[in-house]
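Checked the freezer inventory, then went back to the computational side. Two predictions to log before the end of the day. The first one is the construct we discussed on Monday; recording sequence and tokens without edits.
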Amino acid sequence: MSHRLLQRPALRGANATRSRDHNRQMVLGQLHARGALGRAEIARRSGLTTQAVSNIIAELEKDGLLLAAGAARGRRGLPATQYVVNPSGGYALGIELRPAAILVALLDLSGELVWQERQPLSCADPESVAAILPGLRDAALSKVPKAKDRLLGAGIVMPGPFGKTELSGRATDLPGWKETDPATLLSDVLDLPVIVENDANAAAMAERIALAAEGMDSFACLYFGTGLGLGIVQDGRIVAGAYGNAGEIGQLPVKTDGGLAPLESVLSRAALERHLAGHGIGASEIQEIARLHESGAPALQTWMAEAASALSQALAVIENLLDPRATVLCGAMPEALLRDLVVATPLPRTVSRRADGAQAPLRIGTCSRMAAARGGAALVLAQSFTPALAA
């Protein structure tokens, strides 16, 4: 049997047949991913003419989205002006709704975190959330006055699954939201365009922006949040599924000493806390877990062994189904703990394993309870950087 290697076509700009917005996004995306570039290099990478790029750059400069960043001498001719994304050219809010808290992050156009806040919730129903969000938006704008006239929108992040499914009724569900359209309600409340996404997908988009300089555009993201979720990024875009619930990996059956069990009952922040509680240890904050890990607490080490086995099994499924360049671990867990978990996890034999070992198949991303909130804002920014695929 002969085999043919299929090359994915690169997304290119078009001088006549694609929209102005598409080409603006193309230019912004090139600069965001690669840093300072000149007109000719942008044209070469995007497939646009140099004249078209010059016109777009003039517009973007006028709109405050780009800055000239000096000049670089090429092989011939005068030094070429280099351009970069202007960090204060735009801002985005990311808002994660959890059963007991709201987490808010404000990112600038370069993807840097410029403000964050966490507010406890006694009830996470739509009415309670709607009453709190305007004050949090105003607090962000008060702390970062430059954002007042340059707020692009808000990414609203919620635990999945979305809609009424056979998995509804779990402890991670938010009360009252199954009967509410969050996009309409929260857009009106915030007076902003909004994107609604599940927490794992949002975290995956945050990692996509963070890894842009490495060219990492197809990967899986295991997110430790309210439960355990999987975000799937393919060619730079989130794979959402028919109903927005692709990657609901927490219910994947894995082998444990007690028989088959859902993955997130072993490999999740909640599973770790339950395991520690069973040994008489209370640790509900990420700093407390970090201290236990640093001290080498035996109870934490036994959880690590169980979690590594479960992660290896999950990795076999993820890699054989999705063939990602890497699987990234992120979310509300101590970074040092996840690094040790990576070391302890046996790598399964899968279609993704490469003999050259050029790409680490399992790696650490953003270890912070703000990961998904930042991802919500990153989803808004991604609309500025990512042109729609051609039909």
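The second is the one RB wanted added to the comparison set:
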Amino acid sequence: MDQAKYDQMQGMLNKLEDIKNSQESIIDKINHVITDLFQNPDKDLEKAMEEAHEKASANVDKIAEAIDEYEIKFNKAQQQ
């Protein structure tokens, strides 16, 4: 693999990791809101946060799968 291709693929992996980390940060912030709702209950907001948490968790899973698949491609390309 030439250096330009290596750099491009490594950059893509870095961006994917950044996206995953951002989604995990969103989950953490949602959890803080959910915790705050124990002191100041609001059923509508609680429901919205639970849905947002589910979607963000699914995003993390999907991005992690994409990273795994891309890493396999990256490793194969390095061996050629």
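For RB: The chain has two helices and no strands. The mean pLDDT is 96. Let me know if you want it refolded.
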